[in-house]
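We store sequence, tokenised fold; for instance:
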Amino acid sequence: MAGAGISVGLSTTLGIPVRSVLNHCGQGGLAMELLGPFAIVLACVLAITAWLTRVAGYSAAEPAIPQRRATDAPARAWNQLTLPPQWPAPPCLSIGRDRLSITDANRLLVADAQGLPPLRVQEHGGVLWLVEVTSGKLVGIGDARLPALGIWSIWLRAVDSRTILAREGLLHSGAALRLVRQPRNAADSNAIAVHSVTGRLVGYVSPRIAAGLAAVLDAGTSIDAVVVSFSSRSGSSQPGLITLLAASPQTLSHLFEPVSSHGTVQMSLPDELLTG
């Protein structure tokens, strides 16, 4: 009865329908109750989007080419460690550049007395090729005779050029990498990880190639790798393919020995671990 009296008094004094005011206040309270959960959901969406953009390299819009930050190491600084020393790049030969025939390959692709192959690496159009030194003819990177000479071809597939690879300096021919055995890998006991020389994981050797290469690494042979080519432009929205040439430091040094006095490509190594 007292409440009814107050309502009548308010209605009479202020000329405002009390029921309308109370209904309005009730709706406002409901809106305030919904505002909290909405804010939490919005914060989660923003956090997930930021994580995908930074860590996974995902972006709904066309991504910009990664810019080096003040904390990033110089892309081509040198770190000697256990990798072979920097070698002058092989030049383009003036004689025939067609592929070595199967017959000639069987005859010429034989290691010398020091166990080194009769091959050099040469640059043609920004891509590194193997060239047989006596004929000047090209040898395919995937040639089945190469493993017998201590040379392996490795392809890193579905590589996102927008993320760490650009900062690691791996998107150019001659960039060096390391192969690291993972014998306790749950998925594959022959697993071989591919690391930049700063220690960052950039991919894995395919199971087919790792099956033969794992025994070589387990025997204590050091195997390093060099980027031969990259199939996609830096900043592209499509994943790319990095082709690597792997061999012992001695063999890599031999392959990079100059065969004439013009044209150079250098094996370049970043010098310290980059932060994510």
User: Anything to note?
Assistant: The two ends are 70 Å apart (CA to CA). The first strand starts at residue 119 and ends at 124. The chain has two domains: 2-56, 102-255.
